[in-house]
Amino acid sequence: MARTYLDLGVNVLRFNFRGVGQSDGQYGDITGEVQDCQSALKWLTQHQDVKRLFLAGFSFGAYVAAKVAYELKHDYPQLSMEHLLLVAPSVINSPFEHATPLVCPTTVIMGVIGVMVYIRRPSSSTCPKRATFFMVSWCS
C-alpha cells in the first residue's frame, strides 16, 4: 500500500507496531497498537506541516487506521482526514464498534474466499460519507 501511495505522489510514513519486525516491545492488546499509530502521527505533525491525511491498514492494521481516524478530529482538529483504506480488515477479532461510524470517504477491500462477517449498515445520518466496497475474487 505504501508503494502505491508513493507512486500516486502521496508522502508516506510507514511503521511497524510494537514487537513487529525490528520494533521493540510486545503486543499491546489493540490499545497499544492504536497508541503506536497515534505516536507516529504525533511525530509526523511535529516534524512536517501536515494538512491532509490518508490512513491505510491491512488486517489488524485496518482496525487501527479506522480507530485513529475516528479519534482524529478530537486530537488533531487542524488535519483533514481525506481517505481511509481498509484492506482485509479483521472484523472478527477487532472491535470496529469503537471505530465507527467511519468519518471520511472509505474504501474497503475484502476477498470472497474465507469468512465474511456482515455488520449492521449505519443509517445515513450517522455515516457522513459513503464507503466503497470491492470484492476481490482472486489475487496473484
Please, could you describe this protein's structure?
The chain has 140 residues and is α/β, with parallel strands linked by helices. It contains three helices and four strands, in the order ααβαβββ. The chain has a single domain, classed as Alpha/Beta hydrolase fold, catalytic domain (Rossmann fold). The protein has a four-stranded parallel sheet, covered by helices on one side. Helix 2 packs across helix 3. The chain starts with a helix and ends with a strand.
Summarize the structure.
The chain has 140 residues and is of the alpha/beta class. Helices cover 28% and strands 19% of the residues.
Show the helix and strand layout.
Elements: H1 2-7, H2 31-47, E1 52-58, H3 60-75, E2 80-87, E3 106-111, E4 131-136
Parallel strand pairs: 1-2, 2-3, 3-4
Helix pairs in contact: 2-3
Brief descriptors of the model:
4 strands, 140 residues, single chain, 4-stranded parallel β-sheet, Rossmann fold, 28% helix, alpha/beta, globular
Number of strands: 4
Strand-and-helix sequence, N→C? HHEHEEE
For the record, the CATH class is Alpha Beta
Q: Provide the helix percentage.
A: 25-40%
How much of the polypeptide forms β-strand, as a percent range? Answer: 15-25%
| CATH architectural group | 3-Layer(aba) Sandwich
- Find the CATH topology: Rossmann fold
